[in-house]
Amino acid sequence: MQKIQEEEKNLQDLMTNKYIVAINQIKQRFQNDFPPVQDDPEIVALKEQFTTEQNNLHSIKTPGTGNGEFALLNATVETLQNELNGQKLSIDKERETILNSWKKQIEDEERRHQNIGEGPSTRGRDQLKHTLQSQIDGVIESRENDEKKLRDILNLLNSESERVSKLYQTELENPLHQTQVDSLKNELENVDEILENMIKTANNNKTQEIQEMKDSISKLNVDISTKIEKLNQEIKSENENSVNLLEKAKNDLEDIIEKSKHDDKTTSLELSQNLEKIHIKNDNEIDSTRIKIKQLKSKIANDKNTNEIIISSTKSQNEKDLEKAEKNFQKEVHKLQCNLTGLSDFLDEKIQVLEEEVQKLNANFDITKPRECDVEKIEMLEKKLVNTTAFLKSQLQEFMQIKSLIVSRENEYNKRFGSGPKVGTYSMQQPHSAHSQRGFVN
Question: Which residue ranges are recorded for the region named Disordered (predicted)?
Answer without folding.
Answer: 418-442
